[in-house]
Amino acid sequence: MKTFLQILLFVLMVTQMSFAQWYQQTSGNKNALYDVFFLDTSNGIAVGKGGTILKTTDGGANWMIQTSGTTNQLRAIFLIDSNTGTIVGGSSTILRTTDGGEIWNSKSTGTSTTYYGVAFTDASNGIVVGQGEQS
C-alpha cells in the first residue's frame, strides 16, 4: 500500500509539472502584435501594427503604450538591457532606444526593405533580416 501511494503521489506531481499554465493578458491595445521580447520575468516590450509599442514592467499584468513616431508595421524587437533596444519593421523602419523606450529614434537605411528580424551581440553589433529591394 505504501508503494502504491508513493507511485500515485509521483504521478500526480509529474502531471501537474508537465502542464504549462497560460493566462491571457489584456493590453488595452486593438492592433495586432507581431513580436515580444522579455529581458526577465517582469520586463518586456511588444511591437505590432500601426507603429504599436507596448512596455510592461510587471510580467504583462499591465502594459504602457510608448510613442514610436511611426505608423509603419513593427515586426521584431531585440533588447540588449533595460535601456537599449532596437525595433525593425516595414518601409525600412529601424527604431533605437537608449533610455528604456522613453524615446525611440529612427535610423535611416537607404533601402525599401521590410525587416522581419533583429538580433544583437552587444549594444553596437547586430544583424537585421528582411525582404525587399535595395535602393
Query: Radius of gyration over alpha carbons?
Result: 20 Å
Question: N-to-C SSE series?
Answer: HEEEEEEEEEE
Multimeric organization: single chain
Number of strands: 10
Count of discrete structural domains:
1
Low-confidence segments, given as residue ranges, are none
Structural class: mainly beta
What characterizes the major β-sheet?
4 strands, antiparallel
Helicity, as a percent range: 10-25%
Shape: elongated
What gap, in angstroms, lies between the N and C termini? Answer: 76 Å
| Number of helical stretches of at least 4 residues | 1
Averaged pLDDT? 88
Residue fraction in strands: 35-45%
Report strand order across the widest sheet: 1-2-3-4
Question: What this model shows, in words?
Answer:
A hairpin with a 7-residue loop joins strand 3 and strand 4 (64-66). By secondary structure, this protein is mainly beta. The chain has one helix spanning 2-18; strands at 33-38, 44-48, 52-56, 64-66, 74-79, 85-89, 93-97, 105-106, 114-120, 126-131. The chain has one helix and ten strands. The radius of gyration is 20 Å and the shape is elongated.
